[in-house]
Specification:
Elements: H1 6-16, E1 19-21, E2 33-35, H2 37-56, E3 61-64, H3 73-77, H4 80-83, E4 85-90, E5 97-99, E6 119-122, E7 126-128, E8 138-140, H5 146-150, H6 153-160, E9 166-175, E10 190-200, H7 205-222, E11 230-234, E12 246-254, E13 257-268, H8 270-279, E14 285-287, E15 292-294, E16 297-304, H9 305-316, E17 317-322, E18 325-330, E19 341-345, H10 351-364, E20 370-372, H11 378-388, E21 392-396, H12 398-403, E22 405-410, E23 416-420, H13 424-431
Parallel strand pairs: 3-9, 19-20, 19-21
Antiparallel strand pairs: 1-2, 4-5, 4-6, 7-8, 9-10, 10-16, 11-12, 12-13, 13-16, 14-15, 17-18, 21-22, 22-23
The structure holds glycyl-adenosine-5'-phosphate (GAP).
Glycyl-adenosine-5'-phosphate (GAP) is lined by residues 144, 146, 176, 178, 187-188, 191, 193, 195, 260-263, 300, 302-304, 306-307.
Length: 432
């Protein structure tokens, strides 16, 4: 199975409008990236697929959308003020700063081996509320969406009365003051998380922890990730976050090696207990059947939207030889492909063909994300659509004017077939 270099994926993303360097005209800003027209579609498709699988297709998970800026006491209770830190060292030769776990003996920048003592560096971004920058108005940009769900636990119990086990799901931005650069969108200052907090009876925690790891692994496969590129890895005790008793990472074989895509953690009753104690609100769950009152355990599948997008792009990228040419094709699944159908006129100087092609595109837009393009010769138009992963290209030619048929070209095989215009919508509905 071919594995392509990250540079090729970065170049395709820039060339076709998936992902651009952040604020590029000013020289960019390290670890920030902007999603272009195709990137935002792909990202939205990833989020929709996740929401569908975890909220709409289940009876036991409710959606949420909490504030990014929260009462700062949240982050004291959660342990993030005290413990959410990386150990950093400075290279005394080139003065660059690195995460201690990411240098071996040598500075990755200059090759030197003289470092300062490691110091803990909190990853949370601070900002202030109000006009006076004093300590009373300091707040944090959330480093995870999870806490927004924990602090609303009682609101959910009071408004929706769920029984255990039940979950909350949220997709939203999170922020971390990351110092490691490189690897494209893998580690950024600002990113989106897709998180589930699944509340269970403590005695069921191990079972649900294993079930969620399995279910989340399968989700990536269902959306087209190749099995050989995905694996699970159990955290060693010393790797665990301060809140976790156990954690399984789902890792993807990125162009730069196996790295974390999503973590499934058993957070125990740590969070609800902490928030209960700090807020003075009783956050225990009352079980009607057993008449017990207790803190539920939390199983947390926590994935990154941006990392998923990068994994789906890396997995879908393919090059194949076609005659004397190399065809670049993004073999994204039909759920994720940013554009489902492109309508292309064979001759753009024939007004009747152009008019018919535009009419067909207009009709298809009501059902599928479709585009019309006549800005190049047909071969080039096909290559362009292949590069963004468009599933079907519909070509309107001279013959279409007479026989009322168009050519449908399949992205993966390049197979072509003639389909009647009046049957086209149904044909594509069936395929998509
Ligand atoms: N609530 C648990 C939590 O936040 P995490 O392992 O720190 O756990 C979960 O983050 C996921 O969020 C990661 O698996 C990754 O996909 C994504 N993520 C974390 N930091 C990121 C960063 N700096 N840039 C991009 N994605 C990140």
């Amino acid at each position: 199975m071919a594995k392509y270099e990250l540079d090729k994926i970065v170049a395709l993303c820039k060339r076709r409008g998936f992902i651009f360097p952040g604020s590029e005209i000013y020289g960019g800003l390290a670890n920030t990236w902007d999603y272009g027209p195709y990137g935002v579609e792909l990202k939205n498709n990833v989020k929709s697929a996740w929401w569908k699988a975890n909220v709409y297709e289940r009876d036991d998970i409710l959606g949420m959308d909490a504030s990014i800026i929260m009462n700062p006491r949240t982050w004291e209770s959660s342990g993030h003020v005290a413990s959410f830190a990386d150990l950093l060292v400075d290279c005394k030769v080139c003065k660059k700063r690195f995460r201690k776990d990411q240098i071996k003996d040598k500075c990755p920048e200059c090759g030197g081996n003289d470092f300062t003592q490691a110091r803990a560096f909190n990853l949370m971004f601070k900002t202030t509320i109000g006009p006076v920058e004093d300590s009373r108005s300091t707040v944090y940009l959330r480093p995870e969406t999870a806490q927004g769900m924990f602090v609303n636990f009682l609101n959910i119990l009071d408004s929706r009365h769920p029984k255990l086990p039940f979950g909350l799901a949220q997709i939203g931005k999170a922020f971390r003051n990351e110092v490691t650069t490189g690897n494209f969108t893998f580690r950024t200052l600002e990113f989106e998380q897709m998180e589930i907090e699944y509340f269970v009876s403590p005695r069921d925690a191990d079972r649900f922890y294993a079930e969620w790891a399995e279910r989340r692994f399968q989700w990536y496969l269902d959306l087209g990730i190749k099995k050989d590129n995905l694996r699970k890895r159990q955290h060693e005790k010393e790797e665990l976050a301060h809140y976790a008793q156990a954690c399984t990472d789902i890792e993807y074989n990125f162009p730069f090696g196996w790295s974390e895509l999503e973590g499934i953690a058993n957070r125990t009753d740590f969070d609800l207990k902490q928030h209960s104690q700090a807020s003075g609100k009783d956050m225990r769950f009352f079980d009607d059947a057993t008449k017990e009152r207790f803190y539920p355990y939390i199983i947390e599948p926590s994935g990154g939207v941006d990392r998923s997008v990068l994994a789906f792009l890396s997995d879908a990228y393919d090059e194949e030889k076609v005659k004397d040419d190399i065809r670049v094709v993004l073999r994204l699944s039909k759920e994720l492909a940013p554009v489902k159908v492109a309508v292309l006129p064979l001759l753009k100087n024939r007004p009747e063909i152009v008019e018919l092609a535009k009419r067909i595109a207009g009709q298809l837009k009501k059902y599928f994300v479709s585009v019309y393009d006549d800005t190049a010769a047909i071969g080039k138009l096909y290559r362009r659509q292949d590069e963004v992963g468009t599933l079907y290209c519909i070509t309107v030619d001279v013959q279409s004017l007479e026989d009322k048929q168009v050519t449908v070209r399949h992205r993966d095989t390049m197979r072509q077939e003639r389909i009647g215009i009046d049957k086209l919508t149904e044909y594509l509905k069936d395929k998509l």
